[in-house]
Amino acid sequence: MFGFGVTPKQAFDRVFTPHVVMRFEKFATRSVGSRQTRETRVLPQSMYLWRKAVAPHWLSAREKILQTRSHGRLAIISRPGCKRLQLEIACASRNDSRKLVEEFGGDAEKLQREWLKRLRDGEKSKPLKIGKRPVISRKGDFPNAPAVGKPPLLVIPGGRAFGTGEHATTAMSLRLLEQLTRGWKSGWSFADLGTGSGILALAATRFGARRVLAIDVDPVAISTAKTNAQRNGIRGVDFRLGDLRHWKALRKIDIVAANLFSELLMTLVPKLRRSGWLILSGLLRTQESELVRVLRQNNIGIVKVKRRGKWTSVLGKS
Fold first, then answer.
1. Residues spanned by CATH 3.40.50.150 within the chain?
2. C-beta atoms surrounding 9 within 10 Å
3. Who's near 275: CB < 8 A, 6+ residues apart?
4. How many Å separate Cα 7 from the centre of its chain?
5. Range scoring the smallest mean pLDDT among 147-151, 223-227, 236-240
6. Helix (H) or strand (E) holding 4
7. pTM of this prediction?
8. Per-chain mean pLDDT for the chain
9. In the chain, count of helices (H) and strands (E)?
10. Mean pLDDT, residues 161-168
11. What residues does 212 pair with on adjacent strands?
């Protein structure tokens, strides 16, 4: 029933991330004057899944417009030994899924509410350790202060976060950040472009950053990141709502992390030349050579490349 060797739950788990669920629930928040009132969230009775199997070159030519059409909900799935990629987009209405079929081909299928409830209930996951520091947990019942001799803990509940550190692009970025700063003295600066749940910015403060900037174009992401900072007792992070295409660094930043889709990442590289270290992620392996070319054009050295599954992350030095 779900082609390409993907079970219904696998397809659902890949597309209906907490990030996506939160976007569908935004209608439950309304503004009253200068105040926001959060009403009881009512999940849609049903959702729709658009999917299409494509060659990498087909995706390269259309990824930007698909990301725009889906408001960042495009999921790209690859399997070992398979040259074609499967694209999936979660849609809140039958009409949205039909429009994708009409414009890009593929097919659409209705998913019942029970699948959404299964995600929202969540499956308990083990805490995630990043190198020698800190442990990240989705459970919200941990104390802010770690036990003596234990690494500092970050609590990022999966039910409300845009990322809990488990996705390959986030996990590789976290590990590059931890390895790079392991021997550094506290006080360095950090910018997280496309912060999402704020996990990289919050981890940076745990690693010793003192001047931290976190930017996202989505107001829900900024709200979530601020909540996660409060939950972990972290203060002083400068969370900003803004379009990264118009962002300019006013001073040199020691480390800039950008976990973004490829087209936006490529356009930002020239703006990052004044930064010290760059942690760039969100790229498919098929897009790695293009990023390397853009980095070299901007005189940014490539220090390390990490690969996990279909994803690539790069550590650069300007």
1. 124-317
2. 12
3. 191, 249, 252, 253, 254, 255, 256, 318
4. 24
5. 147-151
6. none
7. 0.61
8. 77
9. 10, 16
10. 60
11. 190
